[in-house]
Amino acid sequence: MITELCILFFLVALAYSAAGFGGGSSYLAILALWGIDFQLMKSTALLCNIAVVTGGVYHFYKSGNLPLKKALQLSLVSVPLAFVGGYLPLKQETFFLILGIALTLAALAMCYRFFFEKEEIVAPKEKESEWAYGIIGGAIGLLSGMTGIGGGIYLSPVLKLGRYDTAKRIAGLSSFFILVNSISGLAGQAVKHPIAFDWRFSLPLILSVIVGGQLGARLSARVLKPRWVAGATAALILYAGVRMLIR
User: Which of 65, 153, 188, 232 lies 20 to 30 Å from 115 when distance is taken between CA atoms?
Assistant: First the structure.
C-alpha cells in the first residue's frame, strides 16, 4: 500500500507545485479512499503541504513573483483562524462531512480552472478591497486548519476573478498562503493533543512529495499543463467528496 501511495503523492506534488499549490485536497482524497485514520489524514496532508510549498515559496520569491505585502495582508486573518481550525475538536462523522463538502467545492474550483479560466495574462486592478480578501482568506484558513487542505485551491480562483494580481504572482501568493496556514493548523492540533503521526507511514509520503515538489517547482507550467492536471484530478476529488457525503 505505501508504495502505491508514494507514487500517487509524488505525481500530485509534481503537478501541483508548478502552479503554486501543495496538493492537500488530492492527498486527502487519496488517503480517504485508502481508509486512513482521519486524525492521521489531517496531519499527513498538512505536513505534505508544507514540504511541497516551502520550496515553491523560495522559488517564487527568488523570481520576484511573491509580493510580500499582499501575502501578509491575505494571511493576517487566516493564520489565527487556521490555528483555531486545527484546535477545534471534531468527531469523525463531523470531520468527514466537512471534508466531503470541502473536497466537492475543491473539485468544482478545479473544474472552473479547466473550463473557464483563460490562459492570457490579465493586468491586476489598480485598487482592491484588502478587507474583503482578508475575510475570504480567514474563512479559507479556518477550513484549512479543520480539514488539512492548505486552501490555495480556493484562494487562487477568487484572486483571479478579482484580478488581484498577475497569474504568476497569484501562484506565489497561494504558495505562501498554503505554507503559513498549514503550519498554523498543525500548531493548533499540537496544542490540543499530540499530533497524530506515524513515521513509518508518513515519512515516505513526505519524502515523495519533497522530490515531486522540487521537480515541479523547477519545471515550466507549459510542460506540466496545470489546467489539464486540474481537469484530470477533479474527478478523483469529486468522487471522494461525494462518497463521504453519501456515507
Answer: 65
In the chain the first and final C-alpha atoms are separated, in Å, by: 24
With 0-12 / 13-18 / 19 or more C-beta atoms within 10 angstroms meaning exposed / middle / buried, residue 3 is: exposed
pTM listed for this prediction: 0.83
Secondary structure (DSSP) of 174-227: HHHHHHHHHHHHHHHHHHHS-----HHHHHHHHHHHHHHHHHHHHS-HHHH-HH
Count of domains observed in the chain: 1
pLDDT in tens, 66-125: 999 899 988 999 999 999 998 988 888 888 888 888 888 878 877 766 666 655 455 555
The CA R_g of the chain, rounded to the nearest whole Å, is 16
Contact between 225 and 22 (Cβ < 8 Å)? no
Closest C-alpha among 102, 97, 104 to residue 142: 102
* pLDDT: which is higher, 208 or 108: 208
Range of the domain at 111: 2-246
Instruction: Quote the pLDDT of residue 182.
Output: 92
CA–CA gap between residue 17 and residue 22 (Å, rounded): 6
3-state secondary structure of 36: coil
Longest CA–CA span in the chain (Å) reads 51
